[in-house]
Design brief:
83 residues; mainly alpha; single chain; 2 helices; 87% helix
Length: 83
């Protein structure tokens, strides 16, 4: 019985971690993209440089929820609190 409660809490925590990481990444992607578009509008001759930097930043930001989800899933299946 007590293991079921621990497993259920672990699954719930993994879902919260995944949702939080995804929402944070979505907000970060939106901010990076909006600032890059502002920069491209101000300096159209440098648009290709801004676009490359934007894609690199978005890629790095998107790796955060993937890593967080993997860590959460590992902690669900390799839970140190389950005997």
């Amino acid at each position: 019985m007590e293991n079921a409660i621990i497993v259920a809490a672990s699954v719930l925590a993994a879902g919260i971690i995944g949702a939080g990481a995804s929402l944070g990444a979505a907000k970060g992607d939106g901010m990076v993209t909006s600032k890059a578009i502002e920069c491209m509008a101000r300096q159209p001759e440098q648009a290709s440089n801004f676009q490359v930097n934007m894609f690199i930043s978005v890629g790095l930001i998107e790796s955060i929820p993937i890593i967080a989800s993997v860590i959460a899933i590992v902690l669900v299946f390799a839970n140190p609190f389950v005997k």
